[in-house]
Write a structure and sequence with these properties.
Chain A: One of its GO terms (molecular function) is phosphate transmembrane transporter activity. The complex is a heterotrimer of chains A (313), B (295) and C (294). With 295 residues, chain B is mostly helical. The radius of gyration of chain B is 23 Å and the shape is globular. Classes of the chains: A mainly alpha (313), B mainly alpha (295), C alpha/beta (294). The interface between A and B is large, with 82 and 87 residues.
Chain lengths: 313, 295, 294
């Protein structure tokens, strides 16, 4: 009797003990979770850092938020007639939006067209030529894009469209080439996610290839394609060095596409090394960074909204 | 029906045209860089140290720095990104917290890198007293790289079919074992593509490094591999200008007479390096995939 | 499995042993002093080259020279985070610098000249004309005797030392109208060279045959004219320290100020040495004769 009860107890112990796999499971969970926590900490640190510096313009330097968002003069070192510093960011916000939307408008048809070609018409050539080339282009540093812009795009714009060549139009061309690979490869992913039987059903009904692509595949992939475009816009919005070299960096309201203009990033990168930490000039630049951050938040929310809509359908 | 067929022909034709044009633009771009850069390349250019204001400097030190920094940054960021992506995709519940974390990560990825660079400068260089060093640069690159890498690994995990996951669990494997033994091997080629793409971006990054790894490249003694010596190439505490930073610097303030030649030569080197990465990683990915899945 | 563990263990021990060995055999002489200089990108090549020479002659020292811009250099020296701040400006000219502790060491003089695109057809301007061009009162080159071509102004970034000097001495303190801004001399020169109608300003050392340097009131932008202050648009390059320098910082600054550097590197990099100047100018622009080369 006694022996039996001990063996039952040991069996119980054995059964209650976590198996090796279960221990590994806990371990894996903890490790992967702490990696995530680390990333979140990094993100929070940077966002907190930018926010605290960016808000200082309004709290310690007492610039009104309204003046900042609607003012058209950007000379943080100089006081205007009312003794307030000139920190109007409107011209840069407008510049950033114009250049982002224009480049997305041009890039979208090209990117989606290429993605359709890669996926629907000639998958072989797509995999062999287009995909490697697009991936390669992602790795070209923006400095190099900027210099090609300066030596090829700016003279081209000057001779064809007039003006000095520096301006939103040149920036648009450069950004178009820069976001093209990103949007193309994301669009291709979206098209790939459309189930095969959609196409087969449409072709079986007697639709031509184009009708299938236009009426079935593209419709089904719309949320994914929208996401790709918005993502490309977010990249364009945050791009600094290349745009800075071709847009001219004049903090003026853009009157035409060939006049020099400025974007949030171009002013930020041009000025940050020339200002002293903690001064109004420096804080005002961080406020621009904060605007950028908020804008990419908005872009992300849009992507998310599109994604949710796509799932509901 | 005739009309539909004609329409079909026109549409397909124009798609050919569009993709042809895109390829043309991209090839012209690459061609421009290579044509203007290749004539500058020579063994001397690839190995000699840079000169501050005289003709005939090379990019040897910068080239080495770029690779060393890339490897360090990848060593730090890859495990973290992998862990985070696994947790996000395999473990995390689909609720608002997860969604907020994803949004935060993506916001970080669209921040201009100069902001990341300045943050790295104030935090690593000044606060943690790491100074202008490879280590500071590697941490800054990690910050810059993590969101991209996490996102792309998560996407790779998503491409592995749900059946495989269910199969693993049905065999009585724990979730972690399923991930480790089934999902990851199947996702390797796609993860690798993500790693190459982000490596390319890291390799060409300049703005985040100007304030962290620094803009000067002291001469190195390539016979000295002791990482504690200041002139050793392996020392992680020395300032290290990379190739992309070098291009930026000589284009902005360079006063050497052959600045233009050096800058186009360096650009070509960068592009060729990224090209080699792509080929190497593609080859490795194929072999690794075969070994991991068929064994 | 256990065999694999064994190999892993041995590998780890070897690695640690190698690390210890490397640490033990490190070059102790290099574990000496090191200082960091941060700031002006324009001044960086000079300080960097001087630093290399100095460390070559004094084993066991290390001079770490970085760019980042004048603003960064001055804020870091004010915070005491670095030993030397490189600046294109007097510290008191830079907004946000409040420290009275900063000590100025002038190591070079840089002449700045207006440059124009070669096809503008203008070789000489008066100060009034130059001011009118940059303030936007004149918008076509034909109004100042050149070709019929609109004027394209290219400025340096706000807060740049070159721009501050140019506006102070070239335009009598007037402020340029808002126009294109670039944050480096190399970019400015390239843009002026390729853009018809362009005008900007760079340091003498950046002038080459792709652009035309303008005469101002009939005075040519030459070093001889800077030395006796006939050419007014010039400034000092400064090394700032927080308090009087000590130790390696002091030795290094003395080295940069010594003829060994002033007669060689400073000249080779296209600067003038403060020793050559016949006059001295303070932060308010007051000029004193110092009676020729010392």
């Amino acid at each position: 009797m006694k022996e039996q009860s001990t063996s039952v107890a040991s069996l119980e112990r054995q059964l209650k003990k976590h198996s090796k796999a279960a221990k590994l499971e806990v371990w894996g969970r903890v490790v992967s979770f702490s990696a995530l926590v680390l990333i979140v900490a990094v993100v929070v640190a940077i966002i907190g850092f930018v926010a605290s510096k960016g808000i200082a313009t309004f709290t310690t330097n007492h610039v009104s938020l309204w003046d900042f968002l609607t003012g058209k003069n950007w000379n943080p070192g100089i006081k205007d007639a009312h003794g307030k510093p000139e920190v109007g960011a409107l011209s840069m916000i407008v510049g950033s939006f114009l250049i982002t939307i224009l480049s997305a408008l041009i890039a979208t048809p090209f990117a989606i067209g290429t993605a359709v070609f890669m996926n629907e018409i000639s998958p072989n050539r797509g995999a062999k030529i287009l995909r490697p080339v697009t991936e390669l282009l992602v790795g070209i540093p923006s400095v190099v894009y900027g210099f090609i812009g300066l030596s090829v795009v700016v003279p081209f714009t000057r001779s064809v469209f007039g003006g000095s060549g520096f301006g939103i139009l040149s920036g648009t061309f450069v950004l178009f080439v820069m976001v093209l690979p990103t949007v193309t490869s994301m669009s291709a992913d979206a098209l790939r996610a459309v189930p095969r039987f959609y196409r087969e059903a449409s072709l079986a009904l007697g639709a031509t290839q184009w009708q299938t692509i236009y009426k079935v595949v593209l419709r089904a992939a719309t949320p994914g394609l929208m996401t790709a475009v918005v993502f490309g816009m977010a990249r364009a919005f945050g791009e600094a060095l290349a745009v800075q070299m071709v847009i001219g960096n004049a903090a003026l309201m853009p009157h035409s596409l060939v006049d020099p203009a400025a974007t949030l990033t171009s002013v930020l990168t041009t000025g940050i090394g020339n200002t002293v930490m903690g001064s109004l000039q420096n804080n005002a630049l961080w406020s621009l960074a904060l605007v950028l951050l908020l804008m990419s938040l908005v872009f992300n929310l849009i992507v998310r909204l599109i994604g949710r809509k796509g799932r509901l359908q | 029906m005739h009309k539909a067929k004609l329409q079909n022909k026109i549409a397909i034709g124009s798609l050919y045209g569009i993709s042809g044009l895109v390829v043309l633009i991209l090839v012209a771009l690459l061609g421009y860089i290579l044509v203007s850069g290749l004539p500058q390349l020579s063994w001397h250019f690839l190995t000699a140290p840079a000169k501050a204001f005289l003709k005939g400097g090379g990019v040897g030190v910068q080239l080495f720095n770029s690779f060393y920094l890339l490897i360090l940054a990848m060593l730090i960021s890859f495990p973290i990104a992998l862990g985070a992506a696994i947790y996000l995709y395999e473990y995390a519940k689909d609720n608002w917290v997860t969604s907020a974390v994803r949004t935060a990560i993506e916001i970080l990825s669209s921040l201009p890198s100069v902001v990341v660079g300045l943050f790295g400068f104030l935090f690593f260089v000044v606060k943690l007293r790491l100074g202008f060093s490879i280590l500071s640069g590697a941490f800054a690159l990690t910050f810059f790289n993590l969101p991209l890498l996490t996102r792309s690994i998560e996407d790779s995990l998503r491409t592995v079919s749900e059946n495989q996951r269910e199969g693993g669990l049905a065999l009585g494997l724990s979730r972690w074992e399923t991930v480790n033994k089934i999902i990851l091997p199947a996702a390797v080629p796609s993860i690798l593509t993500g790693v190459i793409l982000s490596a390319g971006r890291v390799f060409g990054e300049a703005a985040a490094l100007i304030y962290t790894a620094g803009q000067s490249a002291p001469a190195l003694n390539f016979a000295d591999w002791n990482p504690f010596n200041i002139s050793s190439p392996l020392n992680p505490m020395r300032p290290a200008e990379t190739l992309a930073v070098h291009i930026w610097k000589i284009n902005s303030e360079g006063i050497m007479p052959d600045a233009k030649a050096i800058s186009s030569g360096s650009s070509a080197v960068l592009v060729i390096a990224i090209l080699l990465f792509n080929f190497a990683a593609r080859y490795l990915g194929k072999r690794l995939y075969k070994r991991l899945t068929s064994a | 499995m256990t065999k694999k563990r064994w190999f892993q263990g041995i590998g780890l021990i070897l690695l640690v042993a190698l690390g210890v060995f490397a640490y033990q055999t490190r070059q102790v002489s290099h574990a000496g002093q090191s200082i960091t200089a941060v700031g002006s990108t324009a001044l960086q090549p000079l300080v960097e080259a001087a630093g290399e020479q100095y460390t070559g002659e004094h084993l066991g020292t290390f001079i770490n020279v970085q760019g980042g811009g004048t603003g960064t250099g001055l804020s870091q020296i004010q915070e005491g985070a670095v030993q030397i701040g490189n600046s294109d400006l007097f510290a008191s000219e830079q907004k946000g610098i409040t420290s009275k502790q900063l000590v100025d060491h002038r190591v070079a003089v840089v002449g700045i000249t207006p440059i124009v695109n070669r096809k503008n057809g203008v070789q000489n301007l008066t100060t009034q004309q130059l001011t009118a061009v940059f303030t936007g009162q004149v918008t076509n080159w034909k109004q100042v005797g050149g070709a019929d071509r609109p004027i394209v102004i290219i400025n340096r970034a706000q807060g740049s030392g070159t721009r501050a000097t140019f506006e102070k001495f070239g335009m009598n303190g007037h402020r340029s109208r808002t126009a294109q801004e670039q944050d480096s001399s190399g970019m400015v020169r390239q843009i002026v060279a390729t853009t018809p109608g362009a005008i900007s300003y760079v340091a003498f050392s950046y002038v080459d045959k792709t652009v035309d340097a303008l005469h101002l009131n009939g005075v040519a932008p030459t070093e001889a004219n800077v030395i006796d202050n006939h050419w007014k648009i010039w400034s000092y390059e400064h090394l700032y320290t927080n308090g009087q320098p000590t130790g390696l910082t002091k030795d290094f600054i003395a080295y940069v100020e010594s003829p060994a550097i002033q007669k060689t590197l400073v000249r080779q990099l296209g600067y003038l040495s403060p020793d050559q100047m016949h006059i001295e100018r303070d932060v308010t622009g007051k000029v004193t004769q110092i009676g020729g080369a010392r």
